[in-house]
Amino acid sequence: MEQALANRDTFDVAAAKGGDQAAFERLYRAHAGRILALCARLTGDRSAAEDLTQEAFVKAWEGLPSFRGECAFASWLHRVAVRVVLDEARAKVRRPRTMSLVTDPGRGPGSAPPRAASSDVDLERAVAALPEGARRVFVLHDVHGFSHEEIAELAGLAPGTSKAQLHRARKLLREALR
Amino acid sequence: MMDCRRVEALLDDYVDGCLPEIQAREVEAHLGTCVPCARSEDEIRSLLRRAGYLPIALEPSRDLWPGIEAEIRSPRRESPRRAGSLSLGWLAGAAAALVVLTSAVTLWVTRYPPYPQGGMGRSHPELAFLSASEPDYLRARAALLAALDDRRASLSPETLRVIEENLAAMDTALNSMKAALEKDPGNRSLAALIEATYREEIRLLRRAASLPAHA
To answer: Could you report the predicted ipTM of this complex, rounded to two decimals?
Structure first.
């Protein structure tokens, strides 16, 4: 499934780099759900996340010439989205968090088998309630699989700070979910 | 023996498998004897399992594409297309130039081999590279041809005719170079030329596959 997606991306990325907006729309359709989930968890604000998802795809379109295929397009796109979220956070005062994310936990392709919905909802709520720095690192590391080195580079942190934030996040979540 | 405070500080790295082996063994030994720390370990592992089950995608409440499309069509947004337009004329011209070049060089190389026959010993790095990379080129070529095939309906008959004629001409040039290489297997110039031709063919196919609809 992941490999098939990556293969299909290869052609659409090449076409989009040549200016083909239809190919870029296919890339959007394939990845929008994952990018939205990432933005929603990073911000804790579903409505802001949709705007940030749009902005991430616009930035990706502009940045396509610099994408050389050294990593999967999906990984590159996730990094673009993280930068957009962090840039936005730096640029303005945080919007109030309204975690509508938990009311619409749509499952995307490749996600794990369904479990008790309340378990997911409890965790989403607890994640949304984390302090911002801890939430970002937990979401990037434990939900979306970024390494501490990647997080450090994207967020302008030392890897040790990323580890400390993760430790804090896990501790707070364990307490919240007991 | 580690105490609970030390174990608590190392527990995340332990669960993530990031501790050096000696430290990991010490943490493990402590966990085997300390119920509260073992409970903490279970909680972290349980949390990670639950995080792994969270949905990796969410459905947008509205279609976000129109907003994206409006932005990327806006003149203030730079198109990813590089300087130089992607035109059918460019494609035809580049392909024709490649065919003329490869045919001329094939003729030259086969008439005037740069190395004496059999005089290169057993080691031919270019030949080894060609045989190692050829399957990759062929796979990429097949995939791009399939992608082009999928887009057949969105391209004009004239575009398709130019693309197909040029691909056929390039294949002819490649076949003649391969035949020449079979007769002169030590000819490094031919091997390098075949590899360069594959690269060019892939580049042209990518360009062709990315032509805008109705081109």
So the answer is: 0.79
